Amino acid sequence: MPAHATHGTHGPSSHLRELLPLMIVSSFVGYRGVNIKRGGGKCKGGPGSNFPEMLVDCPSFSKPQRHMYDDTTAIDVVDLLKVFEKKNRAAVRAVDYISFRVRRGEIFGLLGPNGAGKSTTIKILTTLLPPTSGSASILGYDVVSHPLEVRKSICVVVQENAVELYLSVRNNLRTFGRFHGLTWSEIERRADGVSELFGLREHQHEKGVDLSGGLKRRVQVAKIFMIDTPIVFLDEATTGMDTFNKRATLQAIREESRKGRTIVLTTHMLDEAEELCDALAIVNHGRVIAAGSTDNVKSMGLRLLNVSLTFERLTNDILRFIHAYHPYKIETSDHSIEVKVREEEAALGILAGARQTGLLRHFEITNASLEDVFVELIDKKESVTS
Amino acid sequence: MKEVLAVMYREFLIRRTSPLWLFFDVAVPLLYLLMFGVAFDKALGLGLAIGGDSVSYNQFFLAGVLSMSCFGSAMNQSYGFFVDRDNGIFYEFLTYPMTRGQFLLGKILFQCLMSVVQCVLTLVAGVLMLEIGIQWEFLLLVFCVVIIGTAGWFFFLAIFAFLIRRNDTYNTAINVAYFLLMFLSSLFYPLENVPGWLKVLSYGNPLTWQTDALRFLTIGVGQIEFIVIESLCFGVFLLVSFWGAIRTLQRAI
C-alpha cells in the first residue's frame, strides 16, 4: 500500500479520516473550497435506531441467541425452520433456522434475493404456513398455538394482487373494514380518509376488475390504513406503483410507524428499504446473513466506500495508481471514475494521489449504499457456500 | 358471529354484482324440474310404482331436483375458492381475524340461504305449475335437510378445491364426480329395480341418502327406519367433510 495512505499522515488526508465515519464528504477541489456534508448515514429517531445486536447466521459466525420476549418486542423469531417436502424431489429448506427480533414501532425490512425465504417467513408470521420447527411470536402470541390472537394483531399486504375483482373500490374497503370489526359509521369515515390519502376517490365506484395493476395495488395497500392493528406486514407492497404513489405510500407508512405501528416489509427495492427501515435482516438461502439497524448493516465488516472522482482528463497514470489500491470495483466514464474500496486508508490514499495529479476537479466519498452491501453480502455468502 | 356475518356480507355483495349467478343459483334447478321433469312425466305416462304406491314422475323427481340444487349450489360456492385464489384475495382472507371454521361457516351459511330460496321456488313451482301434492307439515324439516345437504356437499367439495390447485382440473374432476353421483343415486329413478351392483353403489352415495330423506318429507315415499339410518349417515358425512375441509384449508397455502 502506498505510504501516503497509512495512518499518521498529515494534511487533508488525516483531516478527512476523522470525518469519514460520518460521511458523506463532498468537495470541489481547487478554488471553490471544501464543502463537507455530515450525516451521510441515515439518522432516524425510531426505536430501532439503537438495535443492539448483529445476528449473522452463517457457519463462520456465531449462532444466534434466543430472544426473550419483553414489552418492547413486537416480533420474535427463534430458530425458525420451514422444509417443503415434495414428491420425487429433494426437500427444500425455504427457511433454515433463522432468528431475528423486531421492536415495537420499528420499520423492519426483510431483504434478500428471489427465493431467499422472505415470503415464506412472512407467511409463517402471518399464520398462513406452519413452521417445521422453531418458534415465532407476535406481541408474545405464538403463531402456531395462538393463530387467532396473532391475526387480531396484524394486517397484511400479500405479495399477490389481492383485490375483490367484482367489487367496487369502495366495497373493497367496506368488506375489509367489516372483516376487522369496524362499525358501519367508522367504515364510511375511514374509507373517506383512505380514499383521499391514496387518490382513490375518483375511482371508488370502479370495480377491481377494471383497475390498472398499479391502482389495484393502491387499493390493496390502502386497506391497511382502514384499521389500527399494531403490526403491519407489507410483502413487496409498492411493486407496480408509479413514483408519485410510491412516495405517498412510503410517507404514509412512515406516518403509521410514528404512530407506533410496527411495520415489517419485504422489498427488492433496496433504496426504498434504506430510506424507510430502522432495522433489517438480509436473508439468503433461508438464512439470516446479516441483521441489525440499517446503519449497522450498511457498515458491517465490509467497510465499503465509494470514491467518485472527476478529472479534467483521465490518464493511464491515474488509472494505474488507483489500481495499486486493489479496489473492489472500478467504473470509468468520460472524465469520471468511480471506485469502491474496503478500507478508509485506500479511499484517502486514492484521494491524496488524485489531488497530486493536479487534474482533479471534483470528488465525493460516500458510504456504500445498502445495495452495495447487499450484493457484497450475498456474493460473500455464495462463495462461502460454494 | 361478527366474523361469520362479515363473510356473508362479502358473499352478498359479490352475488349482487352478477344477476347471472343469481339466475344460476336460483332458477336452474327450477328449469330442470319444469323441462326435464315434465318431459319424463309425459313419457312415462302412468308414473312409477314405488313400494306398492304409484307416483307421478314429477312427484318423484321433485326431491331429486332439490338434492341437485343443493349439490349445484355447493359446487358453485366451492368453485369460488379458485376465483379468490386467482385474485390473490384468498391468502389475504386467511390473515383476517377469524378462524378457518368461521370463514367456511360464513360462506356456507350464505349459500344455505340461497339453497332455501331455491327450495321455496322449486316447491311453489311444483305445486302451482305441476300440481304436485306436498306434505306442508314437514316444510321446516325439508329446509333443514336442504341446509344440511348443501353444507355437507360444500365441505366435501371444498376439500378437493383446496387440494387441487388448477381450476380446470377441479372443473373436470367435479363434473365427472357430479355425473357419477347423480346417476349412481335415487335422484332420477327408483333403485328397487336397478341391477344389484348399481343398487349397492347407489346406497353408498350420500346423494341417495339426502334425496331419500327429501322424498320422504315432501311426498311421503319411503320407510321411516331406513330414512333415519340414511339421515344419520349423512350427518356423519357432513361432520367428516367439515373436519376434512378445515384440515385441508389449514394446509391450502
Task: Explain what this protein looks like in three dimensions.
- Helix content of chain A is 32%, strand content 26%.
- Chain A has 386 residues and is an alpha+beta fold.
- Chain A has two domains: 10-41 and 303-367, Alpha-Beta Plaits, CATH 3.30.70; 48-162 and 231-299, Rossmann fold.
- Chain A has a six-stranded antiparallel β-sheet, covered by helices on one side. A six-stranded mixed β-sheet of chain A has the order 8-9-10-5-11-12, with helices on both faces. Chain A has a four-stranded antiparallel β-sheet with strand order 4-3-6-7, covered by helices on one side.
- In chain A, strand 6 and strand 7 form a beta hairpin.
- In chain A, helix 1 (12-19) packs antiparallel against helix 11 (344-356) and helix 4 (169-179) crosses helix 5 (184-197).
- With 253 residues, chain B is mostly helical.
- Chain B has one domain.
- Chain B is 78% helix and 2% strand.
- Chain B has a two-stranded antiparallel sheet with strand order 1-2.
- In chain B, helix 1 packs across helix 6.
- Chain B is globular.
- The mean pLDDT of chain B is 86.
- Classes of the chains: A alpha+beta (386), B mainly alpha (253).
- At the A-B interface, helix 3, strand 8 and helix 4 of A face helix 1 and helix 5 of B.
SSE class of chain A: alpha+beta
The main β sheet of chain B shows up as: 2 strands, antiparallel
Span of the ends, CA to CA of chain A:
30 Å
Number of strands of chain A: 16
**Biggest beta-sheet profile of chain A:** 6 strands, antiparallel
Helix content of chain B: over 70%
What is the strand content of chain A? 25-35%
CATH topology (fold) name of the largest domain in chain A: Rossmann fold
Fourth-level CATH superfamily of the largest domain in chain A: P-loop containing nucleotide triphosphate hydrolases
Share of β-strand residues of chain B:
under 5%
What integer is the average pLDDT of chain A?
76
Compute the number of structural domains of chain A. 2
| Computed structural class of chain B | mainly alpha
- Compressed to H and E, one letter per element, the order of chain A equals HEEEEEHEEHEHHHEHEHEEHEHEEHEH
Global outline of chain B:
globular
